[in-house]
Design goal:
- The chain is mainly β.
- The protein has one domain (about 1-215): outer membrane lipoprotein receptor (LolB), chain A (Clam).
- Helices cover about 15% and strands about 40% of the residues.
- It is built from 3 helices and 12 strands, in the order H-E-E-E-E-E-E-E-E-E-H-H-E-E-E.
- It has helices at about 1-5, 140-155, 170-175, and strands at about 20-30, 35-40, 45-50, 60-65, 70-75, 80, 95-105, 115-120, 125-135, 185-190, 195-210, 220.
- It has a 12-stranded mixed sheet.
- Strand 3 and strand 4 form a beta hairpin.
């Protein structure tokens, strides 16, 4: 936990100033992949996911008002546009969810609050372990909840497709209850399966260029192959 607090002192600098967003920056570790940075920018209208502001890097943009997801690839000059179905998957009786939240009494405070350890379980199996801080960056937590619920709506029609062997934990976290990872506050540390995310920076009023939340008009628009 002390390592988390020290890493929070590391900042990211914006190059243009036109508006404000809530900023989250995670260092991500997963098997077989070199460690990488995941940056999240959230405003009332948009949520952007990218690799830390690398020039001409690909990014995902979620329009929170229109509920549309755009995957933008500057190298290929393409925009994958996805409109999730409106139906939100409901938790089936076969998945029984439990969670355990305990205060990390020996951990330093973050944003004036004591971190808490959160265990998310499905059918008695621990699916996800987090360290969270409540009531911190609520807009970002709401935006992430909206995005992952939208992605869940997209994945739901395929859960019974041939070759789809998702575990109970994967069905819970990706399809039926993606919001529960963000329901107790800002994740400082998040482990699910072999993937680990550690928060290295966050800001409530981060200056951003409005162009970060735009989709290039001259890029080719494409649709998911299964939807054509």
């Amino acid at each position: 936990m002390r390592q988390i607090i020290l890493l929070l002192l590391v900042g990211f600098v914006s190059t243009a100033f036109a508006g404000k967003a809530e900023l989250l920056v995670y260092r991500v570790k997963e098997p077989g992949v070199e460690n990488y940075i995941s940056r999240i920018l959230v405003t009332k209208e948009y949520l952007r996911l990218d690799d830390g502001g690398i020039p001409d890097g690909s990014y995902t943009l979620y329009d929170r008002r229109k509920k549309i997801i755009f995957n933008v690839d500057p190298e290929e000059q393409t925009v994958l546009e996805m409109v999730p179905p409106e139906f939100q998957p409901q938790l089936p009786e076969s998945l029984v969810l439990n969670e355990r939240l305990t205060v990390e009494v020996d951990a330093p405070q973050v944003a004036g609050k004591q971190p808490q350890k959160l265990l998310l379980k499905t059918n008695g199996e621990t699916c996800r372990e987090l360290v969270v801080v409540e009531d911190t960056l609520p807009q970002a937590m709401k935006g992430l909840t909206e995005l992952y619920q939208a992605l869940a709506r997209m994945q739901f029609p395929n859960i019974h497709a041939p070759g789809n062997n998702q575990s109970d934990c994967e069905l819970t976290e990706y399809v039926f209850a993606p919001q529960r990872a963000y329901s107790h506050g800002l994740p400082l540390w998040d482990v699910m399966g072999g993937k680990q995310r550690m928060l290295v920076d966050y800001k409530k009023d981060f200056s951003v260029d409005d162009e970060l939340f735009s989709v290039p008009e001259n890029f080719q628009r494409v649709e998911p192959a299964a939807w054509k």
